[in-house]
Amino acid sequence: MNKRLLLLVFITGTTILYSQKKENSSFIDVNYFYGKIARHNDDILHLITDRPEGLIVSWNKKTFGSQEWHQEYNYPDYGFSFTYQNLKNEFLGENYGLYAHYNFYFFKRKLMFRIGQGLAVTTNPYDRETNFRNVAFGTRLLSSTYAMLNYKKERIFGRFGLQAGLSLIHYSNANFKAPNTSINSITLNLGVVYNLDEEDPPFVTIPSEGKNYAERLHYNLVFRTGANESDVIGSGQYPFYIFTGYVDKRLSRKSGIHAGAEVLFSNFLKEFIRFRGIAFPGEFGIDGDEDFTRAGIFVGHELYINKFSVLSQVGYYVLYPVEFEGRVYFRAGLKRYFGKRFFGELTLRSHGAKAETLEFGIGIRL
């Protein structure tokens, strides 16, 4: 009797499980790309000898409205990508990358924009003796970002579809170690899309009921750190420490603004000042005994996506003891909330197109 009862429970549970509406589905896409290396710096002219090509292979999970943010961003996809790129230059070699990405849709889901962030490995980095001409990659492990804009059509032949468009692939070690002129590839891509599920569930629309996401002012404290090197090859990698305070104001479900100030202790700059003072005495306006401490003020924007947000800031050094890449700086990156008060950050700080460092941060929102 007990065995029959257990069998009945199993059959009933299985029937209910398979009769429930499917709430998600996924697809893979394989894209071939071919293009050119952008000439963003004259120091890499000898590295642009041919047109790079490669593959982008991705797994994507679709969203259909099970969470509120799905609807706010027009039901995006998220997933992981693997890239292979032959840079068609004996000094650059080949790159392999692994990324997390989001796909956003426009124009009745016919236009897809993908943004991916991850790490890449290069097969032929700079070496003082064996590969001194590769001034693009000073390390084997690189930070990498790629963006893709595609016209996409799913389920043309059964589960198969096609997509085509443009891709931009960026590699850099964020000045963790010199040299680091970086490489940007602008490419055309053509891809095949394969849906892993027979059909997609319907999109769910959740009434917002006039919910107000605006918040009062909040105070934030952030500590950022990492290591980097000046453009002087072999000058050494040094840690940096940044103490930041700012006020933020959330305006809506997606958007918030903030403004604040910070103090930056960059030990690579201390070594850079000492080097300039010894190697070029009296030149560049540096004597060698200047302070290396900088302080800046900034304004910024925060774009909220689920538990993540995208940060963008522009700042100005009000304390600027020596000239180094300019007084205006930019910061962009990702922020991840852990509850309502604590968060972590991964950001890139740059001066125009010149990256200074990759920052790892932790903070509290009061």
Features:
eight-stranded antiparallel barrel, flat, eight-stranded antiparallel beta barrel, mainly beta, 366 residues, disordered N terminus
Description:
The protein is built from 3 helices and 16 strands. 10% of the residues lie in helices and 53% in strands. The chain is mostly beta strands and 366 residues long. The strands form 2 sheets. It has an 8-stranded antiparallel barrel with strand order 1-2-3-4-5-6-7-8. The protein has helices at 2-19, 68-72, 267-279, and strands spanning 26-37, 53-62, 77-86, 94-106, 111-122, 141-157, 160-172, 183-195, 218-228, 238-250, 255-266, 293-305, 308-319, 328-338, 342-351, 354-365.
Percent range for helical residues? Answer: under 10%
Helical run tally:
3
- Biggest sheet, spatial arrangement of strands: 1-2-3-4-5-6-7-8
Structural class: mainly beta
Overall morphology: flat
The profile of the biggest β sheet is:
8 strands, antiparallel, barrel
Overall pLDDT confidence:
89
- The succession of helices and strands, N to C, reads HEEHEEEEEEEEEHEEEEE
Q: N-to-C terminal Cα separation, in Å?
A: 61 Å
Oligomer: single chain
Strand content: over 45%
Tell how many strands the DSSP assignment holds. 16
Question: Uncertain runs with pLDDT below 50, 5 residues or more?
Answer: 1-21
Taking Cα atoms only, what radius of gyration do you get, to the nearest Å? Answer: 25 Å
